[in-house]
Amino acid sequence: MKGNEAIAEAAIRYGVDGYFGYPITPQSEVIETLMARKPWEETGMVVLQAESELAAANMLYGGAACGKRVMTSSSSPGISLKLEAISYMAGAELPALIVNVVRGGPGLGTIQPAQSDYFQATKGGGHGDYQLIVLAPNSVQEMADFVEDGLDLAFKYRNPSMILTDGMIGQMMEKVELKDFKTRLTEEEIIEKYGDWATTGKTKNRDKIVATSLELQSELQEKFNHKLQDKYREIEANEVRYETTMVDDAEYLLVAYGSSSRICMKAVEMARDKGIKVGLLRPITLYPFPNKELNSLADQVKGMLSVEMSAGQMVQDIKLAVNGKIPVEHFGRFGGIIPSPEEIVNALEEKIIKG
Amino acid sequence: MDVKDIIKEENLVYKKSEVLTDNVMHYCPGCTHGVVHKVIAEVIEEKDIQDKTIGVSPVGCSVLAYNYIDIDWHEAAHGRAPAVATAVSRLMPDKYVFTYQGDGDLASIGSAEILHACNRGENIVVVFINNGIYGMTGGQMAPTTLPGMATSTSPFGRDVKLAGNPLKMTEIVAGLPGTCFVTRQSAETAGAVRKLKKAIRKGFDNAGEHKGTSFIEVVSTCASGWKMAPDAANEWMKDNMFPYYEKGTLKDE
């Protein structure tokens, strides 16, 4: 099935309570699949096409505060609109899953795949000091799996999480193994698990619960921000995920996520055929970022090349991780252009090996 | 006679609703937010639905409504309360969900959200406080500011050529099939408050019967924003607001 369809199917099976969306290319298959599947008949899942991305994201905020498992999906220009509610959710410490099937920008841009929303996704995106947990799938299987992982992490840390993917993975078809159906939580189960923050109705035996990100006293707002930062340090310590390919004897390293990492696998093969000892590190979580792993690999390899379908965004995080130990360069095609493995090998030779 | 001799059960003629908290309200003297909060709390108490009611507060003076009515709340982003309430109501259909919004929130930045929630007939109660001004941010022009009315962003009076005419949201939503009850009330006299309470009660009854969206506008004053004494503000409202925003029920299905 298509990557976008896998997201929809995985959401139903995982027991998502509500999906709120708005059509935008190249991710409309998510809501189309859900509407055709009619999960409200099967699991009771609510699916609603909102009047705008703004409304869809604020519906997400409303649902998340009730302790429900809620998600939305969109593509770049739509995500920009959703950032209002995403910041509110981070500020109110609410769990939700947002899928960004990235297209080339800026502005209305193009409908072709790109990775130019890396900064937006990994630096919070909206206003205020906050972070999203960001997962970057590189296969249709991972599109399905990360719905579950993304929501589990969101609930574990009471923080929104994001699947950052692109039009290539959203539209490509691969075999996928779907998990068994899980039952949705009842209101009693929600009260038992999330009773300290979920707004299920104030009963006599507890104080009212208010989902809010408002704090008018700056001393308390600072204290709250420290609490958020502590949470992010915990996420950074526990949730880094990455995958390496042929790094044991590597003298050079490609770093790429999502679609680019698939192309880089071919590039590693081609470079190895030419006798270049190159490996690949694929960050699976973009936030938290595999800083330690990149820093220790910098003691082994002579240079790193960040391959992105952008003008160079993740390369800045790699440079910070490596902290000047070795040269780090960027190679990218953007605006909806997908790089070829040959281009990547050439860039490695030109920018890193010769450079 | 000592005060303690007077405070006896048999002498009790009025009691603050249990659904109101003891927090001191931050509203200015003469403001009717407190009265409307009280009426909502009384309706919740009388219907015995405190554990089934979820409020959605706006951005504006009533942003802190959650400090005063003792129920679970969501504090929404500016204008988005109907979207937030949509999700709450859809995901927990047995709850009584209401939004509490001012005119800047509902009629300006949240005009899309309110129209679509009403059009879908979301099973929610909307309490819309219209005082023709942005109170919290310091008295700027609202979409409901009357022509000629001076505010900090229309210091020479609202010029309709520049800013358009004030929006009658209640008339607009009454035309949408999703609304079941649309009314315009006020809260400046005891009689008006009684009528308002009846309307809010009806809204919550409708929610219990899953009839669709109930929309209750409360034409209000903003003594501070209008730069008038509370009694003068009430008179100004009667003379100027009521002729433009006619009180009464537009729809009751």
Automatic annotation (TrEMBL), chain B:
EC number of this enzyme: 1.2.-.-
One Gene Ontology term of the molecular function aspect: oxidoreductase activity, acting on the aldehyde or oxo group of donors, iron-sulfur protein as acceptor
Pfam families given in the database record: TPP_enzyme_C
Gene Ontology biological process terms, A to Z: cellular respiration; small molecule metabolic process
Entry keyword annotation includes Transcription: no
InterPro entries for this protein: 2-oxoacid:Fd_oxidoreductase (IPR051457), THDP-binding (IPR029061), TPP_enzyme_TPP-bd (IPR011766)
Keyword terms: Oxidoreductase
Domain of life: Bacteria
Domain Thiamine pyrophosphate enzyme TPP-binding stretches: 66-218
Keyword Membrane: no
Name of the protein this chain belongs to: 2-oxoglutarate oxidoreductase subunit KorB
Organism, as annotated: Salinivirga cyanobacteriivorans
Originating gene: korB_1
